[in-house]
Design a protein that fits this description.
Blueprint (H helix, E strand, L loop, with lengths): L4 H22 L5 H18 L15 H4 L1 H9 L1 H12 L1 H7 L1 H21 L3 H29 L2 H30 L7 H7 L2 H10 L7 H6 L3 H11 L6 H20 L8 H16 L2 H6 L1 H7 L4 H29 L1 H25 L3 H17 L1 H11 L6 H30 L2 H19 L9 H7 L4
Helix pairs in contact: 1-7, 1-8, 1-9, 1-11, 4-22, 5-8, 5-22, 6-7, 6-22, 7-8, 7-10, 7-11, 8-9, 8-21, 8-22, 9-10, 9-18, 9-21, 13-14, 15-21, 15-22, 15-23, 17-18, 18-19, 18-20, 19-20, 19-21, 19-23, 20-21, 21-22
Length: 472
């Protein structure tokens, strides 16, 4: 099916939120060790200020617990954005129903801009954490609204590919963050280096905000608001499942009438148990792979394997390119292979690659095997979970519940991401390479879930998927 120009442009613009999502998520990987040194110095200054510099060398945790638990506080600062994503994933669903998907995407663009500029100009660790939190709100909101908007403007036969543009842009943003960090690190900017790493995000944030003024509003949202003429015009521009605009309008109206009762009833009901559990499980498994540990702590992980600082940043770029290439491959086949087959391939890839990483650390064979293992890991993620998660969650809920369902899936995803990112420094210190073996075992669980539970949603109109899931 040929993708109409307005549809493609609108999907690409909405998916720019995904690029900011990816950039904001990964940019801290190049700066987190510098930030750790900075707030370590702040804690030392506090000890000296209170006239007790001897506490700096104390082995008694009760004397100065902050200094003795550096890994915990480091994880907390790094996870400050993720705390924002958890809240953001819940915060913007209802406003998107009231004010429209496009309006909320504009608001998210503003939050990205404020976060980028504020993080770059932060005067101490608390203010830095606040601005990173604001960026997290934008990331959480984007993970809900961007795929929802694209799913609602897309005909079923191309929906998978178009929603997957969000994932493509997420990994493109991750790659750009790694490239940007690497290039900035070679400029010898000293103490200003980390500020530039965060500040450059303001440019795509401003572009995202401006381009949204040239995209149409969601036709399904417009129908729900009674704006039928505008909905009719948008459907004629983006295309329909039926090939007939009036027939498509009637289908959407009928679906919304049936779903009106759903808006008046609790979300957590037995009749919605299946899509709720599907969204929660795919989101949990996404993070139990350890993907966010790799993205947030890429440089640190490669330094654990013996790489030098600059080399670790260069290896991060390799990881980013691999992510991009395999995401592009998944986009080309997701509407032909289907969601479930990609998840099967990705699950097996996770297990094999994490086994290689674990063996590389255990045997002491060096960084090459570990790099190969992580390249395989990121390829498996990009071709499987990474390409499927936001498409799948955007499809499995009825129209009237889609915002709440997308928010639930995103909330679960970011809660797990925060837990993984918060605890990784501590677990890495205490367990070392064993943490990757634990992630591998979790992916055995995902493989079983895909084989036994996950349904296929390929090529099914949104209004029909709920019937397949047994929702009457």
């Amino acid at each position: 099916m040929k993708i109409q120009g307005v549809l493609l442009r609108s999907a690409v613009v909405a998916a720019l939120g995904g690029l900011l999502f990816g950039f904001d998520t990964a940019v801290i990987s190049g700066a987190e060790k510098t930030l750790e040194r900075n707030y370590q110095r702040q804690y030392e200054s506090i000890a000296r200020y209170f006239g007790r510099p001897e506490l700096l060398n104390s082995r008694n945790e009760k004397d100065l617990p902050i200094l003795q638990r550096t890994s915990f506080w480091h994880g907390t600062v790094v996870a400050s954005a993720l705390i924002g994503t958890v809240i953001g994933s819940l915060l913007f669903g209802k406003p998107a129903d009231r004010y429209g998907r496009r309006f909320i995407l504009k608001l998210l663009g503003i939050l990205y801009f404020v976060s980028a500029v504020g993080s770059a100009l932060a005067w101490e660790m608390f203010s830095f954490s606040i601005f990173r939190f604001i960026g997290g709100l934008a990331v959480g909101g984007t993970s809900v609204i961007s795929p929802m908007y694209i799913a609602e403007i897309s005909p079923a036969r191309v929906r998978g590919r178009l929603v997957a543009i969000t994932q493509f842009n997420i990994v493109l943003g991750i790659l750009l963050a790694y490239l940007s960090n690497w290039i900035i690190s070679m400029q010898n900017l000293g103490e200003w280096e980390w500020r530039w790493m965060f500040g450059v995000e303001a440019i795509p944030a401003a572009l995202f905000f401006v381009l949204l003024f040239f995209t149409p509003r969601s036709p399904r949202w417009l129908v729900g608001q009674g704006l039928l003429e505008e909905a009719r015009a948008v459907l004629s521009q983006v295309g329909t499942d039926t090939g007939n605009v009036e027939e498509e309008l009637q289908l959407i109206q009928r679906s919304l009438r049936e779903d009106t009762k759903s808006l008046q009833e609790p979300f957590f009901r037995r009749k919605y148990l299946k899509p709720i559990m599907l969204a929660v499980m795919i989101a949990m498994f996404n993070q139990l792979s350890g993907i966010n540990a790799l993205i947030y702590y890429t440089k640190r992980i490669f330094e654990m394997a013996g790489a030098e600082s600059t080399s670790a940043l260069a290896q991060s770029v390799i990881i980013g390119f691999t992510n991009l290439i395999f995401t592009m491959a998944a986009m080309l086949v997701i509407d032909h292979f289907g969601r479930k087959k990609l998840m099967l391939i990705g699950s097996i890839g996770y297990i094999l690659s994490l086994s290689v990483v674990t063996w590389g650390f255990f045997s002491g064979t060096g960084g090459k095997m570990i790099l190969i293992g992580f390249i395989g890991f990121i390829a498996a993620h990009a071709f499987g979970q990474g390409a499927v998660i936001w498409v799948f969650i955007s499809e499995i809920f009825p129209n009237a519940l889609r915002a709440r369902g997308q928010a639930l899936g995103s909330f679960t995803h970011w809660i797990m991401a925060a837990l993984i990112s918060l605890t990784f420094p501590m677990f890495a210190e205490q367990l070392g390479w064993r943490i990757f073996a634990i992630y591998g075992l979790c992916m055995v669980g995902q493989l079983l879930w895909v084989l036994l539970v996950m349904p296929e949603t390929k090529g099914i109109p949104l209004e029909e998927i709920q019937k397949k899931l047994g929702i009457e």
